[in-house]
Design a protein that fits this description.
It contains 12 helices and 11 strands. With about 350 residues, it is an alpha/beta fold. It has 2 domains: about 180 residues, Rossmann fold (3-Layer(aba) Sandwich), CATH 3.40.50; about 130 residues, Phosphofructokinase domain (Rossmann fold, 3-Layer(aba) Sandwich), CATH 3.40.50.460. α6 packs across α7. Bound molecules: 6-O-phosphono-beta-D-fructofuranose (F6P).
């Protein structure tokens, strides 16, 4: 079999580990592999490279993706699906492994369900917002990077009696903020699933300061909408609203300064959360996902996404993974908030 592989959407630590494992296992089944450059763009433009043992040998620990990525959405054009089918045939592909998040796998689902293409998905995103899997690979690396940063911010915030507002990634789901804020001992955690009450945040900061704790760490997901602000704005190829020009971390720090009199500074962690080598957990998870994707291809089980459920690698229909975003349940958030609000 000739198997194509692509990485779509935002890059994520562990992408190369998936590619490596899928190729190494695929070779044992006698498969040949071809990488498509820049996500779905690589398929449409037939922009490829061979993937063999030598290419994937040294990439286990490398961040980013050797194939490049993009947010190209073939279905933006009415004939996009047909164009993918033609490119698939021109490239002589028997199957395609798409490694991506909700958008990339949403395209994979449509190509399988509506156009009959032999597609298999692997769940990637630092946001951890795909349904049907306990974790997407790359998530815990992002959490580690963010919690390391929060650790460092504690000491400088304390030294200067400052409130530091740490903005982490997560447009629709607050998993990174929740876990990094918990691990980093944040004093307030704000996630997109719960519209925050800025007055309550300021009250907590003031109360803390009155108790002699002059500094505070506030962790906020980039997708949080403050008070009665409008979340509207330009949309990308997948119809997602673009974030406001001034980040929520910056706006929140300004509001805290104005309303509490404390000196508040924003720190926007941004793409540092996606860069660099994956932590061991994500190398292992990505490797297991890649191996399972190759196995599904060998078994000709298409339209599926590999997944982690209860510690075991399994697979689910792509449609189950992309139908609903996995957001932070209110009770999970409340349980954490309870600890944070404690004495
Ligand atoms: O891939 C997910 C993600 O990292 C989100 O957390 C973030 O909102 C977005 O990508 C940023 O995308 P870009 O790098 O295209 O601005």
């Amino acid at each position: 079999m000739r198997i194509g592989m692509l990485t779509g959407g935002g890059d994520c630590p562990g992408l190369n580990a998936v590619i490596r494992a899928a190729v190494r296992v695929g070779l044992q089944h006698g498969h040949e592999h071809v990488g498509l450059h820049g996500g779905w763009r690589g398929l449409l433009q037939r922009d490829t490279q061979p993937l063999d043992r030598d290419v994937v040998g040294p990439i286990l620990t490398r961040g980013g993706t050797i194939l490049g990525s993009s947010r190209t959405n073939p279905f933006k054009d009415p004939d996009g699906g047909e164009r993918c089918v033609r490119a698939f045939a021109d490239l002589g592909l028997d199957a395609l492994i798409a490694i991506g998040g909700e958008d990339t796998l949403g395209v994979a689902r449509r190509l399988h369900d509506e156009h009959g293409l032999n597609v298999i998905g692997v769940p990637k995103t630092i946001d951890n917002d795909l349904s049907g899997t306990d974790y997407t690979f790359g998530f815990w690396t992002a959490v580690q990077i963010a919690s390391d940063a929060i650790d460092r911010l504690h000491t400088t915030a304390e030294s200067h009696d400052r409130v530091i507002v740490v903005e982490v990634m997560g447009r629709h789901a607050g998993w990174i903020a929740l876990e990094a804020g918990t691990a980093g001992g944040a004093h307030v955690i704000l996630i997109p699933e719960q519209r925050p009450d800025v007055a309550e945040v300021c009250r907590r900061v003031t109360e803390r300061r009155e108790r002699g704790r002059r500094y505070a760490i506030v962790v906020v997901s980039e997708g949080v909408v403050l008070g009665d602000e409008d979340a509207g704005g330009e949309v990308d190829e997948f119809g997602h609203v673009q974030l406001a020009k001034q980040s929520v971390g910056e706006r929140l720090a300004e509001l805290i300064s104005e309303r509490t009199g404390a000196e508040a500074r924003p720190v926007v962690l941004g793409h540092v959360q996606r860069g660099g080598t994956p932590i061991a957990y994500d190398r292992v998870l990505a490797t297991r996902y890649g191996a399972q994707a190759a196995t599904l291809a060998a078994e000709r089980r298409y339209g599926r996404m590999v997944a982690l459920q209860g510690g075991r690698i399994t697979d689910i229909p792509l449609s189950d993974a992309v139908s609903v975003l996995k957001t932070v349940p209110e009770d999970v958030y409340r349980a954490t908030a309870q600890v944070i609000a404690g004495p």
